[in-house]
Design goal:
By secondary structure, this protein is mainly α. It contains six helices and no strands. It has one domain. The two termini are 28 Å apart.
């Protein structure tokens, strides 16, 4: 590999990685905005394990989807577009659990019910995997 090609590859990596980290930060903000409970307060102040598991699963699920977008993107604009779609899909995953599978999920997480956190995490990771797989066009 020539030096110019290597430099271009490193620059592209840095751009995609920076956008990925930006997406993770944005996801944290959006996800905590759409959930009626305050994950950070539950996790940091109350050491709520259910909230940590559920939120951790949401972050992992989103990261899987963003990784799928990055590995299948044909350009930075394409990547950013699919990353935005992944954000919407992962936010939908919380709504699916809250309004479909477990209507009392918020209350149960606030009460630190580990099983609720695990189900939220599992759903978010599953949606992230499906999301990533569907981006392989």
């Amino acid at each position: 590999m020539e030096n110019a090609d290597l430099l271009t590859s490193v620059i592209n990596f840095a751009i995609y990685f920076a956008i990925s980290i930006g997406f993770l930060v944005l996801f944290k903000v959006v996800f905590t905005f759409v959930t009626p409970h305050d994950e950070w307060k539950l996790i940091k102040e109350e050491q709520n394990i259910a909230a940590a598991i559920g939120f951790g699963g949401a972050i992992v699920g989103f990261a899987i989807a963003v990784a799928g977008a990055a590995s299948n993107a044909v350009s930075i604009v394409d990547f950013a577009t699919w990353g935005g779609i992944a954000l919407v899909a992962q936010t939908f995953a919380f709504a699916l659990v809250r309004f479909g599978f477990m209507p009392r999920i918020v209350e149960r997480i606030e009460k630190n019910e580990i099983s609720a956190g695990i189900m939220l995490a599992a759903t978010n990771i599953s949606v992230g995997l499906l999301n990533a797989a569907c981006m392989s066009y």
